[in-house]
Design a protein that fits this description.
7 helices; mainly alpha; about 160 residues
């Protein structure tokens, strides 16, 4: 007994892979949503240097509140400001500045939005080296935070 078997039929070669099956559309939609979510999340989360700078500034102020040592606060704030500047700007531009040039550069870095060369900001010039200087710590802290906020907005 002979069985009449027919050969396997292959699809015609002119068949296209488009349109896709429904499952592929769902997969593409989920992939697109995932990409949008990652991009949105990366834009919304703070950058690590910004977070570290804010925490460092807060730590300097908390140390002052705990010990009430203005001289140490001035030294720590000056160091912190210089470190932040070295993080956001080229070292050739910032590292060698001191005195009035340092304060004027801080003013120019914010396009004049924050002023260190007059008012409480001047205390950053001599405060770290002068134990007798009386400084409004809260005002200086607020000025430095305002400067950091402007710098963060400019560089992001």
């Amino acid at each position: 007994m002979k069985l009449e078997l027919r050969d396997i039929h292959l699809p015609e070669s002119d068949m296209l892979w488009w349109p896709l099956a429904t499952g592929w559309y769902f997969l593409l939609a989920i992939l697109l949503l995932l990409i949008v979510a990652v991009v949105f999340w990366r834009k919304r989360t703070p950058k690590k240097p910004q977070v570290k700078a804010n925490l460092a500034m807060h730590d300097v102020y908390l140390a002052y509140v705990k010990h009430e040592d203005q001289h140490q606060f001035m030294q720590d704030m000056s160091i912190m400001m210089r470190r932040v500047c070295l993080r956001y700007f080229p070292a050739e531009e910032v590292a060698s500045l001191h005195g009035k040039a340092w304060l004027m550069w801080l003013d120019q870095s914010t396009d004049g939005q924050v002023c260190f060369s007059s008012g409480i900001g001047q205390s950053l010039e001599s405060g770290p080296y002068n134990r007798q200087q009386d400084v409004e710590v809260k005002e200086l802290h607020d000025l430095c935070r305002q400067w950091l906020d402007v710098i963060e907005r400019k560089t992001c």
